[in-house]
Each structure stands twice: as C-alpha cells, then as structure tokens.
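Blackboard transcription, Thursday session:
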Amino acid sequence: MEVKNKMSKVEIEKKSSENKYLHLDFHITCDMGLQYLAKNFGEESVVEYIELVAQRYYSPLTRAIHQDGLKAIEVYLQKIYSIEEAAETLFTKLEGDTLFVHLDWCPAVRYVTSKGHEMSKYYRATTEVLYRAIAENAGISFSLDAYDERSGAADFRFIDA
Amino acid sequence: MISCTEFIPAYSVLFEYLDKKGGHVEVEKFWKYISEKYVEPSLGPLVKEEGIVGCWKYFGGAHKTEAADVKYLIDPENGVMTIDMKRCPSKGMLLELQQMEPYYDYCGHCKVIYKRVLEKFGIEETRDHSHVDEAQCFRIFRDINLRKEEDGVDEELKKG
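(Written on the board underneath:)
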C-alpha cells in the first residue's frame, strides 16, 4: 500500500507467512563483519571467529555427519543452495569415501557484487575455514581444491576415510 | 558460504566473539561501524527525502524479506510511526535454536544502529525492549520537525 505524506493514519499488518525468509542483504553484513575483524584484530581473528561459528551453530550438522556420513553434507548443501534460489550452481557427487562438490558461482558473492559492493578476500573463509572446521569437528577431512574470489566458484571435497 | 538464512546465528556469535575480545564496549564499537557503513547509506537518504514515510519504506522492505510478524501505524501528516514487532524473525530464530544461546544483548544492536542515523535527520526513536526475550519489541518514531505542541496522536498510537 502506498503511503503519502498527506494521507491520514494508516495501519499495516504483515504476517511472516506472507513472505519468504530470504534477506540477501545479510550477505553484505556478513562480509562486513569479516572485514571488521581482519582490520581490527588481524586475519587470524577471521579464522577464530568462523571456527567458533562452526562449533556453536553447525553442531547439528556435525552430529548428522556422525550419523549419516557424507550424505548429510550433500543433503545440507542441496538444501541451502535451494533456499538461496541457486540450486543450479551446485553439483555434488558422492563416490565411495568422498563427496565432491563443485560450485559454478556463489549466490552470496553474486548478490553482493550486484549491489555494487566488492566481496572481500576474507569471504573465502566461509567456505575454506567453515567447512574444514565442520569436517574436523565430525572427524572427517576437507580439501578446498579451487576457489575464485570474484565469483565464489569453487571445487572442494569432504573425505571420510 | 554462510547462507543468509544462517546469518543471524553467525551474527550473534560475532557479538559473542567481540565481547570476548574486549567486552561489551567492543561489541558497541562494531554496531556503530555497521550503523555508519551499512545502515546510513541506505536508511539515511530515504529519511532525508521522505521523513517518516522514508522510515516506513526502509523498515517495511527489510521486515518483508525477513518475514516478520509486524504491525505498523503510520501518520505521515504528523510525522509519527510505530512498529509493533510481534515476532522478530531474528530473535525468534535465536530463541528456538537448541544448540546455542543468543548473545545476551543481541537486541542491543537494534538500539544502536538505527537511532544514530535517524537522529541526524530529525527522527527521534523510542524503543520498548521489555519483551525482547519473547522476540517482541515496540518502537515509536517521531519527526521532530513536524512535532506539534499538543501531540495527541501519542495516546492513540501507544502500545496498550
């Protein structure tokens, strides 16, 4: 509803069920947080912080990996890329003791760039450090084989051996 | 990638991390940084150009993509708006998490990041945070440039 300065009082009520929870601007705030940490506390603080996030928030994923193995990671990645409306960028292959993951581009990097911001070099940590920490917490290995900072394109593996 | 749907817990952990580094004052420094570098470039021009209506456009847009349960009362002629956040999607999400507790003053960031910008453009913000532990809060915005001596609209707009 359009509200004009000369209109009388207007009441508007919105329910959460009316809208999809997808506030893409949070990608900008996330990167700003990483930049702030690096600038004020050094690059090692970015690693410490992301490892803390892995420990605090991603513990259910860690438990799922213990229970269901690499399939749990595949299901998780498919879910979040679908929520981000970027399912088409994600390719996964579960082969033996290895989950191969390829991203054509990162939806977070793409969105931030589209808004005229430049994603910092620290954003890489949300792949490299985060997934390594989740893997280690679950007793498996992680390898980042390729990462393009401009697009967020990446190749990485989780190995349960 | 940390999905934008996973950001709020990561944000809460960031406040926790900063607090460990240097106490609450360190967290507030970050909030002021976000206010200046992120909030002001988008909220500032809207409020400067359109006053209370600009406020509504900013918060209405953010609350939409954050899927909030929220009620707005907007009185553009008198320069007053209230936001009755019936369920904050961010605090609500944090309260529902089993695996972690929210930063103890998570809601404090909202007290800081907007007020500093609004004040620059003559918008006074008053907040009631007495129910933040239920993911609820109430805010009144007043354009001081339009304030009248007999500000009777307050009684009608105040939360019951």
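Lecturer's comment: Chain B touches chain A through 49 residues (CB under 8 Å).
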